[in-house]
Amino acid sequence: MFSTSRFTLILPILLACLAIPTHQSKADGILCNLRSAMGSYQSPNFDFFGVIEIEGNTAYIASRNFNSGWKIVDITSPYAPQLIGSFNSGTITTDIDIAGTTAYVLFNDTGLQIFDVSNPTDPILLGAYETTNSNRSLQVVDNKAYITDSIGMHIIDVSNPTDPALLSITETDGQAWGVTVSNATAYIADGTRGLQVYDVSTPSSPELLGNYLSSGASHVTIRNNSAYLCTGRDFEILNISNPKNIAYRGSIRLPDTPTQAVVDGSKAYIATDSAGLVTLDVSNPEAPILIGIDEIPGPIDNSFGYALGVQVIDDIAYVAARQSGLRIFDMSNPTTPPYLGSFDSESIYELQVIGTTAYAANHFEGLQIIDLADPANPALIGSYKPTDSTNSVQVVGTTAYIAARTQGFQIVDISDPTQPELIGSNDIPDFAQSVAISGTTAYVADHRDGFYIFDVSDPTDPVLLGSRDTPGIATNLTIDGTTLYVSAGSAGLHILDVSDPTVPRLQTTYDIDAKSKARIVGTTAYVLGWHTGLHILDVTDPSAPTLLGTYHHWPWEWFPRDITVVGDIAYIADHQESPSFESNGLKLIDVSNPYDPTLLARHDIQYADYVYGVVVENDSAYIAIADRGIYIVDVSDCTPCPADLIKDGVLDFNDVANFLVAYPMRNYTVDFNRDGSYNYLDISEFLRAFAAGCP
Fold first, then answer.
1. Strand order in the sheet with 379-384
2. Of the candidate ranges 141-145, 199-203, 220-224, 325-329, the one whose mean pLDDT is the lowest
3. Taking a C-beta distance cutoff of 8 angstroms, is the pair 394, 386 a contact?
4. How far apart are CA 415 and CA 357, in angstroms?
5. What is the band of 605 on the pLDDT scale with cuts at 50, 70, 90?
6. CA angle, corner 173, sides to 170 and 174, nearest 5?
7. How far apart are CA 621 and CA 339, in angstroms?
8. Per residue in 361-404, pLDDT tens?
9. Which candidate among 256, 385, 501, 677 keeps its CA 20 to 30 Å from the CA of 38?
10. Model confidence over 295-306: pLDDT tens digits?
């Protein structure tokens, strides 16, 4: 129990905080957005958590696998949700709705059951109504239960929960996946028949008002005069002010199939199959905007979770995430998308960023030099175009080294970036694919002809030192000291000793389908495998690399194309495919423990074709996209300031007053230790954080 006397004693201490000077803070970027994750509850049996409903501080969750029933979870502290009750139905729970202390639970093949949950630790069955036609969706309004199944819509009188009575059955032409009732109007997401709208003011005889044809309608949400319809992978916004003439307003393509949506103010929160929780800005219905994606971690290492249901209460999103259980996110500030800007240019294959200048290998346009001083408005400074395609570029000082396919290895003077000038070249036999520079030595991958080594101490006259034909197709290479790593596709990653460049010596081959450049940090190699993901190797002895750990975005077809490692984070530019969608973007992998790399975040790039490269410089990631040019993303972390309770960037009386009000109310915002309890440890941590100030 909370002690008033103890609270009185801490008041002077808290007020003393006001004497501490503090500074403003700023927080944004992908890494900062990760802080939205709060807490989770995962069933010991990895139940398939589906639909979720919130009533007060209690979450009711439908389990969509046999013999699991539904769960009741205390969410008083979002950081430490606790299971407090359950009911084993012996079948699949498809939907759930709560009205006060009554739970209405829909089961796939047995129908509706009604429970008294006044004591959530012991739900009591009150009554039932049987319907066995693949029950799908439920909403209870004014003592009427609206149920959709494979036939259509059932309306049931539940005013007497011990004896629910059928009022009507309305057959629809589609599959009746979801129903939402508002102002005596039922809106049915009717699969292949789109949206069907019925007047249910007389529930015994619903009357069709109108429809909107759209394929794959699975869920509908109503707010004011707008319907938000999930159709296939699209999220459509409709004007329903006149149900007899429903009008399309706008839509957005989602990264995966939506399963449930909630609209709260100008934000839409959408649970999607394997892409997680998607947040949209729908303030302009004609042009909804993707704000962010909260990845749902899977129940096993390196897997992903499915988001099947979502509810948002007071800026907290509660996500039913199948085998990943209940996941809780703070959505109080989801409005700072990490996207910074872009440079439109087709088919950029490789990037190098030095300071505020990008050097891009554009497959069709050659070397492009781009000013990034203003990330929102990158500007082309100059360019050099060989007669054949450009696949790779490396810049050292005022010289750019280019792999130009059939034109071989080219050297360009960029001392005047507005007028790049060719000063040297060497026409190697096959296709120059990739180039790497170490001191005055250049290494060039030559497709089916292995690689070549050049002395470029005089860039106007590169001199061949040595070469070696390697098995497979040499597509990329990386030099680290006297060790050369050649990515040769399905032939593996060849590791060679080039201490004598005239006679390169193969040390070993690591079995992996390697098409991208390996990245070497100290004695660790980060290698990308087609389909097999990230492999982290100990290369202390390059002749005997040892596998430390792997990361694969199971079970998708994953095609990682480039990797950059900064500190404990690996940034991977990739293309991925699942049975229901494909996407391109950036993954951030925590590699602080090389034996267990884990996904931190994913940033999908809408309408991109293929991503080819990534460079991270000064908290910005520069991503090369085949059909979009350069896409710039903020990957900065939060500036920590946990004592700033009102989130204005300043520590002052308002934050102390907020703490004094929230603490006796046991509000989760002052659970500084995130353990679900409220005691002197939280007070101590607040004092420490306040004293530390805002950086």
1. 348-354, 357-362, 366-371, 379-384
2. 325-329
3. no
4. 13
5. confident
6. 105
7. 10
8. 888 889 999 998 888 889 999 999 998 889 899 999 999 999 99
9. 256
10. 666 554 444 556
Interhelix angle for 4-16 vs 653-662, to 10°?
170
| Joined tokens for residue 641 | 């300031």
- Phi, psi for 14 (deg, rounded to 5): -65, -40
pTM of the model: 0.67
Identify the structural domains of the chain with CATH numbers, from first to last: 4-25+641-692 (no CATH), 46-337 (2.130.10.10), 338-385+526-638 (no CATH), 387-515 (2.130.10.10)
Token digits for 110?
A: 């047995």
The mean pLDDT of 323-347, rounded to a whole number, is: 68
pLDDT for residue 30: 63
CA distances from 353 to 338, 383, 532 (A): 19, 15, 28
Does pLDDT of 7 surpass 80? no
The edge-to-edge listing of strands for the beta sheet with 152-157 is 137-141, 144-148, 152-157, 165-171
Are 641 and 25 in contact by the 8 Å Cβ rule? The answer is: yes
Q: Which two tokens stand for residue 310?
A: 């979502």
Neighbouring-strand partners of residue 494:
486, 509
Residue 423 has pLDDT above 90, yes or no: yes
Burial 639-657 (b: 16+ CB within 10 A, else e): eebebbbeeeebbeeebbe
Q: Are 495 and 483 in contact (CB under 8 A)?
A: yes
Cα angle 147, 270, 277; round to 5: 130
Beta strands in 511-645 (DSSP E): 519-521, 524-529, 533-538, 546-551, 557-566, 569-577, 582-590, 598-604, 611-617, 620-625, 629-634
pLDDT at res. 23: 42
Start-to-end CA span in the chain (Å): 36
- Do residues 417 and 403 make contact, with C-beta atoms less than 8 angstroms apart? no
Better-predicted residue by pLDDT, 79 or 282: 282
Pairing state between β 49-55 and 58-63 = antiparallel
